[in-house]
Amino acid sequence: MARGEGAEHYAASLLPVKPINTEIKTAKPKDQRTRLTVWNKLCYAIGGAPYQITGSALGFFLQIYLLDVAQLDPFHASIILFVGRAWDAVTDPTVGFLVSRSRWTGIGRMMPWILCSTPFAVLTYFLIWYVPPFEQGKVLWYLVFYCLFQSMQTCFHVPYSALTMFISNDQKERDSATAYRMMVEVLGTVLGTAIQGQIVGGASNCPTEPDDLNSGNSTNASIVSLEETKQAYLISSGVICIIYVLCAVVLFLGVKEKKENGRKKTLLTFRQGLWLVMSYGPYIKLVIGFLFTSLAFMLLEGNFALFITYALGHRKDFQNILLVIMLSGTLTIPWWQWFLTRFGKKKAVYFGITWAVPFMILIICIKSNLVISYLVSVAAGVSVAAAFLLPWSMLPDVVDDFKVKNPDIHGYEALFYSFYVFFIKFASGVSLGVSTLSLKFAGYVTGSCSQPEAVSLTLKVLVSPVPVALIAVGLLILRTYPIDEERRQCNRKILQEMLDSESETPALGSDV
Question: For labelling, which of 150, 224, 407, 440 has a CA lying 20 to 30 Å from the CA of 29?
């Protein structure tokens, strides 16, 4: 590893100019100016909320919405979920490539993407939760608007993710901003789960008492409450749309994107960008490792509402159980930030993600009990927080490592983020499509208030044995991830010296 070489080269280049060097050391206030205030970090963090608010609402509720409210066949629902996610995955590297080629504007390079995509994202998101008054083209309706929303969301989130590298040059500042961001994003999942769950949870299209299932009035009551449920989904989506716009405004007003001084952006073709990213070993190991662990949590997320409703029988409480998981995750984000700072990011990965495994096993082994379900949800939320924080905290380390190894290539940051999201989304699309298809083979009855025993068994498999196996594979791969704390600190030192030498070069030239 050429760690010392880079440091020696940059240090040696500064030695011959002693008198000038002492004057330039007054550049310390310049370092102070690049530090982020708490307000900057909060505004940056708030910009990540829309992605998580809409993501948690779609992740937890879209499957059950398509099956029980829109009343689509499970096969058609699986097509919508798979194609929508696959399309979303394909748009990520495409948008990442376009963002990396974007020109600097008066408001930055990333901000125009975020601002222009917001109104279209809001409109298409709202239409996903509208049940059209026709049956024939209903599948096409959801497929089109789901894909359009995912495209607009990508145009927002890929530039926003890459913005991490442009809010500060200091690694500690970026890590701190990422911790703020993760806390707000987990809070965003709480908001998405709470808004959607609490509004929709009060309008169930099934009788609350088992005896009502056999009564003659249950059909009319069900029809009325189904209309109420449709209305509830529209109200909750409207509230989320308003929050989405407000968060985008706060991000724009509170964050200033920093231009890289003295560096020309390296223009890459799509094939070159793909090769650049896919041939970098540490990045591949990180992505594949988190691919498996993220899949585990996405599979759990996508099927958990159905699992609580039909396998555990807590129909009236499913939205509250989901909310407890997200609240637990939000409250433990600061603790995980302290843990990874104290013990390192790799140890935080092993400890944090493994924590969920015993609770995934426990939830299917015990007899259905509401109190135990809540306790397990609190404990599982701790692991959800780690799964949220760690990938986004470790990606900038890979980008920094790449900078040290390839100091002449610039403007590629969005590619690293977009290809990571591409793999995660594509795999999650496959998992959601397969899991929904599994429910069809298990005999899932659309619109029914009770399901066959085979459906309950399938849901148990989808939320426990399969995620546990995926976590085990992911953690084994992450053991080979080479960027430990020593290498991370060394990279930080070299990059700071590179930055100092670049900032001093114009001053030296002007004195001569």
Answer: 407
| CB-count exposure of residue 191 (10 Å: 0-12, 13-18, 19+) | buried
Cβ neighbors of 494 (< 8 A, separation 6 or more) are 3, 6, 7, 10, 404
Residues 6+ apart with CB under 8 A from 386: 336, 348, 349, 351, 352, 353, 355
Q: Which amino acid is at 368?
A: S
C-alpha 106/C-alpha 108 separation (Å) is 6
Confidence at 27, pLDDT banded by 50, 70, 90: very low
Check if the beta carbon of residue 230 is closer than 8 Å to that of residue 131: yes
Assign residue 446 a region: left if phi > 0, alpha if psi is -120 to 50, beta otherwise? Answer: beta
Q: Can you read off the two tokens belonging to residue 341?
A: 């700072």
User: Which residue, chain included where needed, has tokens 């959601």?
Assistant: 432
pLDDT at 314: 78
Position with higher pLDDT, 490 vs 5: 490
Structure tokens at 74: 């499970």
SS3 468: helix
* Residues whose CB falls within 8 Å of the CB of residue 48, separated by 6 or more in sequence, listed in order: 160, 181, 184, 185, 188
CA 319-358-472 angle, to 5 degrees, is: 105
In percent, the amount of the chain with pLDDT more than 90 equals 14
Tokens encoding 158: 């890929």
Give residue-wise pLDDT tens across range 263-290.
555 556 667 767 877 788 888 999 899 8
Reading the block at residue 165, the tokens are 């590298």
Handedness of CA 184, 189, 192, 196 (dihedral sign): negative
Is the CB of residue 378 less than 8 Å from the CB of residue 396? no
Distance between CA atoms of residues 488 and 347, nearest Å: 14
Nearest to 471 by CA among 358, 364, 377, 330: 358
> CB-based contacts of 186: which residues, under 8 Å, 6+ apart?
52, 326, 329, 330, 333, 384, 385, 388
Q: Which residue has the higher pLDDT, 84 or 301?
A: 84
Contact 46, 180 (CB under 8 A): no
Dig out the tokens for 345 from the structure.
């990011």
* pLDDT exceeds cutoff 50 at 373: yes
Q: Residue 217: is its pLDDT beyond 50?
A: no
Residue pair 436/277 in contact (Cβ under 8 Å)? The answer is no
Mapping DSSP onto H, E and C, the string for 400-419 reads: HHHHHHCCCCCCCHHHHHHH
Structural element, H or E, at residue 116: helix 111-128
Nearest to 413, CA basis, from 425, 405, 402: 402
Q: In the structure encoding, which two tokens stand for residue 427, read together?
A: 């795999």
CA 154 vs CA 59, 85, 94, 267, 414: distances in Å: 16, 11, 10, 22, 12
The long-range contacts involving 245-248, CB below 8 angstroms and separated by at least 24 positions, are 245/118, 245/119, 245/122, 247/46, 247/47, 247/49, 247/50, 248/47, 248/50, 248/114, 248/115, 248/118, 248/156
